[in-house]
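Q: Could you fold this chain for me?
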Amino acid sequence: MNPRFAGWVPIALLLSACAAATDPEPEQCPTDNDVFGLECEPAVPACEPGLEPRSAESHQGSFGSLGDDGGCQSEWPDPYLAECTEPLPDGIPDLRGLWADDGHVERVEQCGNVVIMVGDTYTHGGYATGLAEDGVNDFAGDGTCSSPISVALVYEANELQFRLGGESPIVTRSLEVAADGEDELVWRFGLGLPEVARMRRHCALEDVPATAGTGLPDR
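A: Sure. Below is the predicted structure, expressed as structure tokens.
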């Protein structure tokens, strides 16, 4: 190196480091979905300048069927992830929405790798890492909070799987497309994973069929 320029190297590195330190971090916005532009449930933050970043991990411990007072959930809670800005990981299905058919209704929230399923008597949420300790550690959704459950959460293609003991799934939610092009959330549950509900997105609870409940629908 020409000795005349040798002294410029540390200065150039210093200027580069200063510029990197002062450059604003790129904004972190939730994964886009046209449904939420209609201000339908579940609420997600609007991607605006100055949006305060909030990660999925920061919501750990903030959801569940058992309230702070020790009582079991008995009504629909407000959205848990309304301030979470972390995008969904690449390749996972976007299950977010208020889903219902004639027999069942539930709200699904997602942010980063956290996913939460909500009814009026339960909140089943966890992190989709494949580990039981990160998954749903809650109670059966009968409104009594008397029967503990513990399952791992895993995404496989267009499906969210609930796995007991790391084995085959015992419950699934899959995103499928109907013949008319509309999204459907298909819930399968029990031995052999029979289909128990095939739901479509609705904007608000007032829009769902009056016969829809949050327990197991009649089969």
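A (continued): The chain has one domain: 26-206.
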